[in-house]
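Researcher: Here's my situation. A collaborator sent me these components and asked whether they could plausibly form a single complex. I don't have experimental data yet, so a predicted model of the whole assembly would be a useful starting point for our discussion.
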Amino acid sequence: MKAEDRKALILMYSKQLFSEYGYHMTQISDIIKRARIARGTVYQYFKNKDDIFITLLDNYFTTWRNGLAKRDSELDFSKITAVDFLKQRIKTTLQFFADDHELCNIVLKMGVGLHDNIEKVIQRLEGDIQTIIKEELYLGQRTRNISEDMDTDLVANLLTGAVLRTALYYFVQEREAFKDKTVDELAEGITRVFAPGLFQKVPSEEQETNDPS
Amino acid sequence: MKAEDRKALILMYSKQLFSEYGYHMTQISDIIKRARIARGTVYQYFKNKDDIFITLLDNYFTTWRNGLAKRDSELDFSKITAVDFLKQRIKTTLQFFADDHELCNIVLKMGVGLHDNIEKVIQRLEGDIQTIIKEELYLGQRTRNISEDMDTDLVANLLTGAVLRTALYYFVQEREAFKDKTVDELAEGITRVFAPGLFQKVPSEEQETNDPS
Amino acid sequence: MKAEDRKALILMYSKQLFSEYGYHMTQISDIIKRARIARGTVYQYFKNKDDIFITLLDNYFTTWRNGLAKRDSELDFSKITAVDFLKQRIKTTLQFFADDHELCNIVLKMGVGLHDNIEKVIQRLEGDIQTIIKEELYLGQRTRNISEDMDTDLVANLLTGAVLRTALYYFVQEREAFKDKTVDELAEGITRVFAPGLFQKVPSEEQETNDPS
Amino acid sequence: MKAEDRKALILMYSKQLFSEYGYHMTQISDIIKRARIARGTVYQYFKNKDDIFITLLDNYFTTWRNGLAKRDSELDFSKITAVDFLKQRIKTTLQFFADDHELCNIVLKMGVGLHDNIEKVIQRLEGDIQTIIKEELYLGQRTRNISEDMDTDLVANLLTGAVLRTALYYFVQEREAFKDKTVDELAEGITRVFAPGLFQKVPSEEQETNDPS
DNA sequence: GATGAATGAGTCTTCATTCAT
DNA sequence: CATGAATGAAGACTCATTCAT
């Protein structure tokens, strides 16, 4: 077997195990058992256990970035409405998670308690997602689709939280129950909830006071 | 020192450490060092490391339940508007997380890879939050404030994800940067985004865009 | 409660537990639980766990010695036959074990793996039993009841082994099944097996089968 | 080193230590120090400390069974006398213990206070020895060599106790003092004591009374 | 490259003993 | 004297990593 293939094999089985059992409860023994290779072989391709995990995350990260770039190149910004744009973004992101529910689980449910360098990678990924969303909200504000009073920081969190949890729920936790649910349906549903609140044209004076009476 | 006090002390320091370093990377050694007690003392009050963690989560769970009950008894359902009700709920939940940012971190960032019985407790907590939200959405539908076409499952996830992420972001991760941000402001902001989408009166024929007829 | 009574109480419960579970598997916690006293109280009466155990054995040792002395004073050496004497001795020893099946179990089944000072006490007890038996065999040889060719060392072991095992079997292991078996019956049975071999008058030339001359 | 060899090595050193210090006082640290291996190596071959001990006992058990079978196939039952048969059995058993004085010590001196599964194995071994002896006594009764009045249960205990104690005394405790004593001599001596009592043809009426004179 | 036996630092857990109240 | 919370040395077991074959 070629070196690259073997490395990919190890990654594949590791991904399965990390997704199901998490970083700590997945042992090298489990990986070599499932991959039917010798203990030492793992260390021929990876520096250590961390390295496997980080490689997995890095792959994910790269895939996600490429997905974003590809998507943008396909959009016709002159024609698309703000609502459709939002829906497109949500759909692309959901699709990304749907395509790899194992990595989805790893990223969305791993948190505190991993080694420092692992946490860094996860936070970079999460931070980047958030940043992109925020930038697009700014864009919306400049194009007058979104009120300037909107707290982009907060809204970015709302969107991120909502979308990531949706991904976790439909693609990992309740995967079987909703396997007929399409990414398109989910994106449509999310957009319908967020669009009215995001794209409302509210005069600033009414927004800033809670209750004028 | 009285038994209950000592137990509370151990729990307090454990909470700090679990929050900062997670379950796996927090060692009994760390706990006894910070609590300035002997190794054996921990085991006088807790069966093992799991037991400490689960006790912590159970306490949290109880606090949260009590908070919900207390809040409901204080609301005057005959006068409050749907929007204000939503805002109240969001605020209570955020307040709950704001009050204990350590447990907030533990619950929101712990996921896969803990022992079985620990995962169970966490999932129960998350599930209960989601269930309550869903029930209130049903209530909204019956009182005609929320469209019957709304996918309550999905919306419950959107709200849960949005609120939990907001809590994590403002009360844990960026705590220092936003320490002047009040819970009220956050609740207001979240409500403003969600209310228009939730309480819109949309005729069913316009919503069903996929209608084959 | 008086000091001596409390000490006796601790000894009593310790004996039960040591007999049932052995030295290592009996914990101070078990003793104080059964005796319904506080942990520290044990150490008011005994230096440590070893001390309890050794006190128990010493009591046993003393009881046994006294039993022997009492018995000898009751025998009329001018009238008793060698066979009856043997039977008497066996009976006394069996009675001694029968009277306290817990200590019987402790002594007969404890072996290697106890702390040094405990082992010493046990070996002293066993050694003393053996020595007494051997001395009586010498006496038998001098009174011409037992052949001078007899290997007293070996025979002492045979008797000791046979009697101790009988005690263990009938008074501890199969206690329930044979609770109607009297000590007298056992002594009679043992005597019947050993007497013919012990008191035979064998000419020396026939015994020394390995004689090279 | 091959796996089986390494396992045998660990067993060998463990046997030495268990024999000398017993189960509880022998630590994994002692074993790895004496075997000059790493701590983890032990756990590559054995599940835990119990597993080592039980493996040792099981090996012993198997050896003993095989010894019995081999011995029986070598005897010519048509020619041998009852006394010689007894002597042969005693000799075989003694030889068995003489061949491995460490396991002899472990089995003969271990008793109460070991973990449940260990005690089970020890009791099986002891029980089997006793059963075999009893069966042969029955055989003796059917062939009219042994009186039917004889209490086989009791006599089996006498023989077992006598032989096991002899083994312990000569092969373990006083090993150095009697290293010139042959197994044959011991078997001869034991037989000489037991044979007259076992093979006496006593009319039942004379047996039941103690001494009419 | 592949193997898997060997390694040993690291961790949890136990339990006899102490001592302030 | 009695109590029982606190102690900490000791010991079993784990598992990522190495390296000779």
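Model: Some features of this prediction you could bring to your collaborator: Residues 58 and 121 of chain B are 7 Å apart (CA to CA). Chain B has a mean pLDDT of 83.
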